[in-house]
Amino acid sequence: xxxxxxxxxxxxxxxxxxxVSLILRSKxxxxxxxxxxxxxxxxxxxxYWLINTYKVLCDKLPLMIKYADLLNGRLYLSLNKMSFxxxxxxxxxxxxxxxxxYNGTNDHELVKRLYRMPSSLTRKDIxxxxxxRRWLLDIDDCQDIEKIKNDIIQASQKYxxxxxxxxxxxxxxxxxxxxxxxxxxTGTHVIGYIRDKDYTVDTIVLSQIAKDLxxxxxFNASTLLYKNENN
Length: 231
Fold this sequence. Notes:
Blueprint: H1 5-11, E1 18-25, E2 43-51, H2 54-71, E3 74-78, H3 84-101, H4 108-121, H5 124-127, E4 134-139, H6 145-156, H7 172-178, E5 180-183, E6 188-193, H8 203-213, E7 216-218, E8 222-227
Antiparallel strand pairs: 1-2, 1-3, 3-8, 4-6, 4-7, 5-6
Helix pairs in contact: 3-4, 6-8
């Protein structure tokens, strides 16, 4: 299973960067995680890539898929665009803090923090661009997109769904034109912006709709990029 090129192109903006993660999940292995991973782990990060354009992702994707197939892993794409400038600013603060704590000795904890610096500073919630934040509805056991659209429209009827710009954000037209529906292994990810040039989504209403439909609403999330269905 691979995300469609159409959806992928909508998710990547070429003025920031994103993280692609190769993750092993215990549910994908009949006898639990491989021997080199603790058996009680539900998921395990093997590797991640930072990509800054749609073209770069397309160029690297074949290699990423080879890794995923070899290890029976899944590729996930972070939804929130991250800022190079913000990451670098956080990096300066991080290094300054380490230098402040350094006392001239070979402190193992400081070395571990130095090792973790790249992954820590490229986390989705630390370096994300506020204006490019997306929400995700995680729906299990349903890949019928038209049914999902109708369920969202119906659930929104008892709430005020007009935002500050007068846009009805839960009409079929809005869902068709502005929302991404990405099939996962057994379900669907529904993805949209919190703010776009033409609208702002009322996240309180969105959370009520998610609760009514028993969907899991996430704001610092990733969506499935690839999973080999034969494994």
